[in-house]
Amino acid sequence: MKKCILIVDDSESIREVVSAALIESGFEVVQGVDGKDGLDNLHKRSKDIKLIISDLNMPNMDGIELVKEVRSDERFKYLPIIMLTTESQMGKKMEAKQAGATGWIIKPFEKAKLLNVINKVMR
User: Fold this and answer.
1) For residue 45, what is the DSSP state?
2) FRET label pair with 40: which of 24, 30, 61, 64, CA 20 to 30 Å apart?
3) For position 12, which CATH number holds?
4) How many domains does one find in the chain?
5) Cα–Cα distance measured from residue 8 to residue 76, given in angstroms and rounded to the nearest whole number
């Protein structure tokens, strides 16, 4: 059975590029257009999703709020969450880490680096 990854990003082009790389590497992908949509998709597929990749800056619910919401649910206490963002400020990284993010990758990303991080954090 393919491992399922939830991608949450308000940029359709980023979602498509990340999805293509993951599908090509044998993963199943679910997409969310912002934090609220991502959270809804997580709840709908809670038993399937093994990792979340989220942007930081999004409308309706940003990536840090998404991380906090995910971590507030006992079922997702250990679900890996990788932030994939253009933000490189240490303050933002620390805020995301304190909220419960597992990792941080700066856009634009290299497919090999993304897959390496995924393989390190996914069970």
Assistant:
1) T
2) 24
3) 3.40.50.2300
4) 1
5) 16
